[in-house]
Amino acid sequence: MPDRHQRDKTTFRPPAEVKTDAQRVLAGRDWTLNDFLVACMVLLAKNPDAMLDQLKEFRPAPKKGRPPKRSPQSPT
Predict the structure, then answer these.
(1) Tally of CA atoms within 13 A in the half-sphere of 53 that contains its CB
(2) Of 17, 28, 50, 56, which has the maximum CB count within 10 A?
(3) CB 16 within 8 A of CB 22
């Protein structure tokens, strides 16, 4: 049976307490976690330097083990 969703699924595994805290904050402002993540990706695409500068201090440390998958290259 084909997937009924029109968009590809993206998954990530934040620490449980980070996810819970974020959902609580967002719900109090009438946002969902999905709304927030999509808005962040749009802002990143439109203004990457400003967005990444704001997030720099919150970036998690790299995990040990298998290296991350390479992201797709931008078309040139």
Answers:
(1) 4
(2) 50
(3) no
